[in-house]
Every structure is written in structure tokens, then in C-alpha cells.
Amino acid sequence: MKEILQTKRLLLRELNLDDAEKFYKLNLNPNVIKYTGNSAFKNIDEAKEFLENYPDYKLNGFGRWAVIEKSSNEFLGWCGLKYDKNLDETDIGFRFFEEHWNKGFATESAKACIDYGFETLNLKTIVGRAMKENLASIKVLEKIGFNFEREFDFDENNKGVIYKTVK
User: Fold this and answer.
1) How far is CA 91 from CA 9, 48, 106, in A?
2) Backbone angles phi, psi at 153, to 5 degrees
């Protein structure tokens, strides 16, 4: 279990197969995946298969990371950076169990990931994408220093926004 970074309250580490049940349960909540364009995993085995075949750590040296609360050792969700070869850009993403919303965990972990991206990975630019209605995620992006860049078609039914920050 490779630890990546720590904040005051949080530990971020690579996702592993032991996270499959939590990963599965996270996506079961329709409120959690409402603005993601993702669907729930069919079962824990599908979540395990996703984690087993998650290529980002090997390909890019980084990816989405498990967010663990230090005081309770509880899996709160995930946050991290993802490189998209086709777009040649790195984005920040985060997803947390609903009972942990509005406690600053997304902002705290995302800020740490941005700092890590700039200082450790020497990235020059990081983007954040959200559906236009996802005001909570947009607020997090603004809090961590991202600026509105442009709108785009998130999927066939939804408008999205792209925010960006530069080193």
C-alpha cells in the first residue's frame, strides 16, 4: 500500500484490491455519481476487476488515490490526478461518500494533489471538469485556485465546464 501524501487530517494512498467493497459502495449512491457520467458497478467483483486493471500508476506514475481519514482510518472516497493521453492534459478528480460532504475533505485533498502535481510531478497546467449543475464541485475547484476556462458538452444531455490552474 503505497502512501502518496498527507494533509492535516488525511492520508492519500494508492487504491488497492482491499478497497473494492468501499469503491463499490461509493458508486452505489445515486447522489454521488449524479454528475459523473459513470454508472454503479454491478457488484464488488466488478469493482475489484476495475482496481486490478487500473493502469494509471504504472503508465503515469500517479492517478486517483484513496483518501483515508487519519484519526479514524476510514476510507472517505478518492481524489487525485489523471493524465489523458488523447487530450494531453492532467485533470483533478474527487469523489466522496455523501456523509463526508461539506466537511472540507474534497478541498483539502484536492489542494494537496494540485501541490503534488506542480511540485513533485512538475506539471505546468491542471484542469478540472464538472457538469454545469454540479455547483459543489465547481466551488471546490474555485477554492483551490482554478479559474473558469470554457463550457463544453459533458455528454449528450449535459453541459459541462472546464476550469484550469497554471503553475
Assistant:
1) 23, 24, 14
2) -85, 110
Q: Which domain holds residue 71?
A: 3-166
Angle at 87 between CA 81 and CA 88, to 5 degrees: 65
Distances (CA, A) of 63 to 30, 44, 51, 160: 24, 21, 12, 22
Cβ 64 vs Cβ 72: under 8 Å: no
| pTM, full prediction | 0.94
CATH of the domain at 108: 3.40.630.30
| Residue among 111, 149, 115 nearest 129 (CA) | 149
Amino acid identity, position 92: I
Q: Where are the beta strands (DSSP E) in 42-167?
A: 64-69, 74-84, 89-96, 125-131, 147-155, 158-166
Q: Number of structural domains, the chain?
A: 1
CB 23 within 8 A of CB 41: yes
Cell 461539506, residue located: 102
What are the tens digits of pLDDT across the range 31-77? Answer: 888 888 888 899 999 999 999 999 999 999 999 999 999 999 999 99
What are 75-127's pLDDT values in tens digits?
999 999 999 999 999 999 999 999 999 999 999 999 999 999 999 999 999 99
